[in-house]
Amino acid sequence: MRTGDSDERISSLLQVPRRTLEFLIDKIRDILTQVFVPMHIGINSLTRTELISHGLTIPKGLYGHNNAIVICDGTYIYINKSANYSFQKQTYSLHKYRNLLKPFLIVACDGYIVDCYGPYKATTSDSVIMNNLFRDENCPLRLYFRPNDTFILDRGFRDSITLLEQCGYKPCMPETLLQGHRQLTTAQANRSRCVTICRWVVEVVNGYFKRDFKLLRQEYFHRALPRMMDNFRIAAALINKFGVRLQDNEYAIEMLNIINERLHFANNLANMVDTTNMNRRSANFNNITAEADNIFFPRLEYKELILFAVGTYQIRQAHSYYGEHVRFHGRYVIEVCSESINSSEFNLRGNNTTLIRGKIRSRHISRRQYYVYVLIENNRSGREGIVEYCCSCLVGRRTVGCCAHTMTIVWYLGWARHENNISAPAEFLDSIFIRDDSDNEE
Question: Which residues does the UniProt record annotate as the domain SWIM-type (predicted)?
Fold first, then answer.
């Protein structure tokens, strides 16, 4: 499992007949499956009190201290094409454009694997898997989990929300866009951020399987598929037994306080931008090249960036967005509003403010750009000097944290321009391609 080598190669290295090696491996696998795995994975190996103890500060603060909180998701094991046409159709994923099987994970907030199920067909959605696991009121999972237990899910579980609510559980899922809208509302965006700040754990655990066991990250051998799920459960038990649990961020308590404080904040700046149709106005903004001293912006410590974003993901993305922004403009260009802002009309926070606008190109679609607005209070230091902000992207109206586009402006103006040797990431890749005329025009 560690090396991903075939039985033929291992038997050659160990100088034993392949049939003998396969017999020994099957014997060891059976022992591990019967003795080791039940001790370290499964709802029978973990009491509810122990499960609750695997919670972290932020999930507990958002969803309750006395109830179980778990994160569910499916992962993928890639396989080869098959001459069995029925099997080939059932294992081909139109999402990944590859043949695969789907194990399903239930994970605690600190990365402890509660249980794993499967394998399921590639055509089986996460919501169908969840419904199958919880449909029977006498099934083990229904007897284990209790009312008010929280399930943190992604949007692929939207068709299982009704069943979970009927069972008395609290399913939490990122919000979906309302029909006819281009952005989530502020309340929707904030609730979505509360989910994603907890849900990343299951993605980390999925990565553990692929990182530690090469057999599970390469295309699985067809001959070994009948025992694939046994191997997967053994890997899960090894991770539980010998792996390191995820810990709270060092600023977790401060981040939780910020979330609770800003969860119900209205985004007044976004309302003003929409009301005045500011995205289509250019005469009221002056272009400025953002050097170290030619514009006031509160200087931030790196800790303040983390607290402003309520996490680190947006900060990592900001560096790459910065590289794209600099390549597009040649220098770091922003716009400053030249007209005075009527704060009282739109209930904007702060006094003696300056409105800054930036245009950030999409990382996915080259010709799409997002408008970022940041309202700063002049001569006020720290992140308290940033009184309002919004973006035209899907989640740009959130007041709990910010999107990566907003963080790009804040990261550069508040921190990066004061640092030495800040450059676009992986610049050496820009010279890989032979450029054509369309690239030069762009």
Answer: 370-414
Residues 71 and 193: their CA atoms lie apart, in Å, by: 15
Structure tokens at 282: 């250019």
- Name the pLDDT band for 359 (thresholds 50, 70, 90): confident
Element (H, E) at 150: strand 150-152
Place of tokens 């943190």: 152
Q: What are the backbone dihedrals phi and psi of residue 361, each rounded to the nearest 5 degrees, phi first?
A: -75, 145
pLDDT at 322: 87
pLDDT at 330 over 90: no
pLDDT per residue as tens digits for the range 271-322: 999 998 888 887 677 777 766 566 788 999 999 999 999 999 999 999 998 8
The label of the residue with tokens 């399930």 reads 151
Report the distance separating Cα 313 and Cα 329, nearest Å. 25
Query: Which run of H or E residues covers position 51?
Result: helix 48-53
Rg (CA), the chain: 26
Q: Judge residue 389's burial from the number of C-beta atoms within 10 Å of its C-beta, 0-12 exposed, 13-18 middle, 19 or more buried.
A: buried
Q: What pLDDT was estimated at residue 428?
A: 84
Q: What is the predicted pLDDT for the residue at 178?
A: 85
CA angle 284, 285, 291 (to 5 degrees): 160
Asked if 72 and 153 count as a contact pair (C-beta separation under 8 A), the reply is: yes
At which residue do the structure tokens 């699985």 appear? 220
Q: Reduce the DSSP state of residue 1 to 3 states and report it.
A: coil
Q: If phi over 0 gives left and psi between -120 and 50 gives alpha, with beta otherwise, what is residue 352? A: left
Contact 318, 360 (CB under 8 A): no
For residue 167, which amino acid is it?
C
- DSSP H helices, 145-290, are 161-166, 186-212, 214-217, 228-242, 252-262, 268-275
Share of the chain above pLDDT 90, in %: 68
The two structure tokens encoding residue 206: 């999925």
Angle at 86 between CA 85 and CA 87, to 5 degrees: 90
Please spell the DSSP secondary structure of 264-326, one letter per residue.
T---HHHHHHHHTTGGG--TTEEEEE--SSSS------HHHHHHHHTSSHHHHHHHHHHHHHH
**Burial (CB count <10 Å: 0-12, 13-18, 19+), residue 273:** buried
User: Measuring CA to CA, which residue among 341, 359, 340 is closest to residue 287?
Assistant: 359
What global pTM score does this model have? 0.90
User: Are 218 and 78 spatial neighbours (Cβ–Cβ below 8 Å)?
Assistant: yes
